[in-house]
Amino acid sequence: MEWTDEAITRLRGLWDEGHSTAEIGRRLGVSKNAVVGKAHRLSLSARPSPIRRDGSERRGLRPPAPRRVIGPTLPPLAGLAAPVALPRPVEAPPSMPVMAVRPPPVAAKPPRPGLRALPCCWPIGEPGTPSFRFCDAEALPGKPYCGEHAQLAYVRVRDRREDAA
Ligand SMILES: [Zn+2]
After folding, report:
1. Is the pTM above the cut of 0.90?
2. What's the sign of the alpha-carbon dihedral 13, 17, 18, 21?
3. CATH number for 13
């Protein structure tokens, strides 16, 4: 194929008009591939042609970038995730002690000076009543009770044993 100046001019014109390479080739009496090759050598800009079925995508053409979603990708959750009103636990009266089981004092780790010792676990009052509480005085090192209650505990156990006997 001889590309005359006239042919090139016609190619440019048809190219600018947005004709398909096959159509340009048909009008110029050349093959589609010849049009593609010549257009490439002429550095004709890629047309925004909707006709892309000839599969002549040239290298360097960037594939269409995936559409970027700007902003929130999820619909606002208002209404969907309204703050669930959790039932507030009934506040215990201040005199109500925490009924959690106290961990046994670690005997191997004597309390350092200046550090508050573990509170005494001696129960005071009727268990299950609001007045029930623990002694909370400083327990003896390595013991769950304060000095006074440790003694009482010992006596009570002994008394019980005597009662049972
Ligand atoms: Zn005590």
Report:
1. no
2. negative
3. 1.10.10
Together in a domain, 38 and 100: no
- Unique residue bearing structure tokens 């995508």: 57
- Is residue 133, in this structure, part of any structural domain at all? yes
What is the full per-residue pLDDT of the chain (165 aa) written as tens digits? 678 999 999 999 999 999 999 999 999 999 999 999 999 999 888 765 555 555 555 555 566 667 766 666 666 655 555 556 666 666 655 665 556 666 666 555 555 555 556 889 899 988 888 889 989 888 998 888 999 999 888 776 666 666 666
Using the mean position of ligand 1's atoms as its centre, give its distance from the Cα of residue 98 in Å: 16
Please give the distance, rounded to the nearest whole angstrom, from the Cα atom of residue 149 to the centre of ligand 1. Answer: 5
The total number of structural domains that make up the chain: 2
Specify the residue for token string 């961990």.
103
Domain that holds residue 34: 1-54
Q: Does residue 100 share a domain with residue 164?
A: yes
Q: Rounded CA gap, 34 and 46, in Å?
A: 16
Residue 99 Cα to ligand 1 midpoint, Å, equals 16
Lookup: tokens for 24:
């340009």
Residue 65 is assigned to a structural domain of this protein:
no
